[in-house]
């Protein structure tokens, strides 16, 4: 349903009236509302996950796991961390701060996380030369200050992953003590009754409005004087149309500055030509297979409609396993069979690509979504363009040594690929002394908001204590992956990037549950969601059994 301008004006007025009350609420009241929100999510989670699966046309039962982890679980997990932060239960631990690297370990923080997410670690790097006392002092946003002004934030929700609007709204509510107008993307506006139910504690008190609406409604909202701030998760073209009133050309993006038609403050999380850097080493046959599954997961999760979906696989030219890895990637793309092109315009985009001679279609022509691969050098424009579909590119880089390859790969992804949201590096034995220098070079020099070692960078999205957004410093008129960040449940005010570390291969016997090849993922993530919501021993037992049965 498209709201009228009168309806929008009335809703913004309601928010304005209640914004002072929300600003002055003590944290105990906000915690009570957040706890009720968790209960509401628990109640509706099955309907939420199954409805999203139905609307996306998911054909494979196990793929419903994506909707559990990317919907109810991610939402509950983030809320719990926000509660801990604002209830002062998450005081920083000095021992987790590395003064040399200017980093703070933010995951795991609990013993149960070591069990649920084995070998997974997360840290935040700070771009400024801050000591421990300073990073502790400069966190909390609105919670640090008194006499703030009331704030109304417009959230333009994403259309792909269902928890994104929830997490965006939560961050701005908690960090900035802002009331929220959440406008859903038409692609998933079926979520309106679900979101109205889960956010009922805030909606009933006039602290949040959730609405549907088309492009005209979005245009009216983004130009409305009633908002103090806008947050967008979407495309760089949407951002340009909001801020400049049009899509910019390359010359305009190269200018130092450009006059805005909409000067309202805006933060954004946008797209990315997502790279996966394969670092050469001595890989076994089973390790090649495992990493191929990881890459295919990064491509096919959510049918490729992720701002962090793998697009360019950077490979060492002349490495003895390069062709074997390519072959294995193609094998698993074929094996995973059909997927669904639920996002508007995606099928047309893929068909246009399919018609060029540079692409190889590697699955059956009867599939609703073809999987296409090609050499990026043959389609150079896609180094600067998000493909937003199931097309995958290979880029081979010549090298004379492992150290040289590391530097060349960094230079390539930093300077030749568009966007800086997330990057993955596959580096065997990354904790060994022989690879320490190479690991440090990658982590220090990759200019991305999330750098993942041996794991798909999307896991930085799921870990609520990590910041999520583009690398700092993007220009207004060359926005790349955006400005600002969300999630960041410890409320750090100066993160540069999040780092995710994982073991090269978690297990030779069982694929991680987030792999598209794991046939139990729907049961695992359903049980994980209920355990996270309840913390009951019975649900923990169910979760453990679902990983093997």
Q: Can you lay out the helices and strands and say which pair or pack?
A:
Elements: H1 5-24, H2 27-55, H3 64-86, E1 97-98, E2 103-107, H4 111-116, E3 121-126, H5 132-137, E4 152-156, H6 164-176, E5 179-183, H7 192-198, H8 200-203, E6 208-211, H9 215-222, E7 229-233, H10 236-244, H11 250-254, E8 266-269, E9 274-278, H12 285-300, E10 310-316, H13 322-335, H14 346-354, E11 360-361, E12 372-375, E13 391-397, H15 402-416, E14 422-426, H16 433-445, E15 450-453, H17 459-462, E16 467-468, E17 486-487, E18 495-501, H18 521-534, H19 537-546
Parallel strand pairs: 4-5, 4-7, 5-6, 7-8, 9-10, 9-14, 10-13, 12-13, 14-15, 15-18
Antiparallel strand pairs: 1-2, 2-3, 3-18, 11-12, 16-17
Helix pairs in contact: 2-3, 2-18, 3-6, 3-18, 12-13, 15-16, 18-19
Can you characterise this structure?
41% of the residues lie in helices and 15% in strands. The protein is an alpha/beta fold and 549 residues long. Helix 3 (64-86) packs parallel to helix 18. The protein has helices at residues 5-24, 27-55, 64-86, 111-116, 132-137, 164-176, 192-198, 200-203, 215-222, 236-244, 250-254, 285-300, 322-335, 346-354, 402-416, 433-445, 459-462, 521-534, 537-546; strands spanning 97-98, 103-107, 121-126, 152-156, 179-183, 208-211, 229-233, 266-269, 274-278, 310-316, 360-361, 372-375, 391-397, 422-426, 450-453, 467-468, 486-487, 495-501. The chain has an 11-stranded mixed beta sheet with strand order 1-2-3-18-15-14-9-10-13-12-11, with helices on both faces. A 5-stranded parallel beta sheet has the order 6-5-4-7-8, sandwiched between helices. Strands 16-17 form a two-stranded antiparallel ribbon. The longest helix is centred in the N-terminal third of the chain and has 29 residues, at 27-55. It contains 19 helices and 18 strands. It has 2 domains: 5-92 and 138-269, Aldehyde Dehydrogenase, Chain A, domain 1 (3-Layer(aba) Sandwich); 274-501, Aldehyde Dehydrogenase, Chain A, domain 2.
